[in-house]
């Protein structure tokens, strides 16, 4: 009989002074190093993107000419590409870059945290960083929005929000009301309240939620009155993916009253419009109302890390998860509130106020709207609408599919379906190619350009952007279309 040797039990001290490791036996696969990654050129990046990431997505990058760009650095309002070209960022990562690229205070806070060898994972012990960050969020949130769940993406924060709403509403009221053209994320739970067919595809989703037109208070009241199983309503305060769509103040005031009357929980999705973007910390603050649950993400990570939060009224939170028996039903995931992400967010929140960025979003955002409205008056046949608030602005072009001169129709006919009738793709592509400006688009309304520059954006950046747009539109639709189609052929 062979006697197994007892494994040596290491003391905590011995574990800290780790023994020498034996040489690796497994051959190392052909891995690229960090320096290799930085040095990849566009053809090789394209090859790897096609082989391992999302070959179909490359098709859309090609339509816009984005596939030729490799970003080498990014600072403040600008990207810098492989040719040293500075690209003015009015896309802002769909609102993820409130502080611009690589804000020095955020870099410094992260570097110090690393140099001090602080810990990251906060599952076993309480985290002083997550606790302080949650305190900050509660400080910035009105009413008794005091309880915080930390995650890594907007979808995760919204999942937490709808799960909390469902538990707090109780098993007899599982249905949710959501809006036409809503976007709340791509994970399966929130997909059930995201309206876009593109994202819903053929996934099996609970079909018993109730869809209403965005901003239609009568439709909401009818739904609440007729269906006692409705326990929650989920709305973006400003629809982003829908093309920057707002509802008037009286809608929100009535919504709050209706939710109180029918005992329905109101979840405000502020993932895109929150965190100062519209000129208040939360967009719903413009209307003097407070939801029961809300969610933030995107710029919460200071443009440097993945951070998201669900913030809920204490009473609602305690109803769902307040007892030890229920506390772990939806406790944070592995990376929820990890160290460096939390201190990045803490620093970000301080900068937001120290640098007056919320006020800047209100003031300079109003200037952006003023200048775009002047452009709309100058080009009424091209620009249909300018709308938004702060630095969450939509510019809608006229649909020219019917008004385009007959001679050009065959030209446009050969383009990808997504581009037919849509000037926004053409304008976005030419703004980048000829004017070094990056703008964003929206899935649900192909005629809209979305403008979500960093909140550090100054009047000089607004002028640079609007002047570039003016120059481009001054060429006229026919020249823009011809130029764009030609670029697609080359
Ligand atoms: C309003 C809204 N909610 C939720 C999400 C999902 O966020 P994420 O992409 O971080 O999962 C987004 C993302 O664009 C959003 O705009």
Automatic annotation (TrEMBL):
GO MF annotations in UniProt: identical protein binding; pyridoxal phosphate binding; transaminase activity
Record-linked Gene3D superfamilies: Aspartate Aminotransferase, domain 1, Type I PLP-dependent aspartate aminotransferase-like (Major domain)
Domain of life where this protein originates: Bacteria
Annotated Pfam families: Aminotran_3
Entry cofactors: pyridoxal 5'-phosphate
Classification via InterPro entries: Aminotrans_3, Aminotrans_3_PPA_site, Class-III_PLP-dep_AT, PyrdxlP-dep_Trfase, PyrdxlP-dep_Trfase_major, PyrdxlP-dep_Trfase_small
GO annotation terms (biological process): L-arginine biosynthetic process
UniProt keyword list: Amino-acid biosynthesis, Aminotransferase, Arginine biosynthesis, Pyridoxal phosphate, Transferase
Family according to the record: Belongs to the class-III pyridoxal-phosphate-dependent aminotransferase family.
The protein, known as: Aminotransferase class III-fold pyridoxal phosphate-dependent enzyme
Species this chain originates from: Nitratireductor arenosus
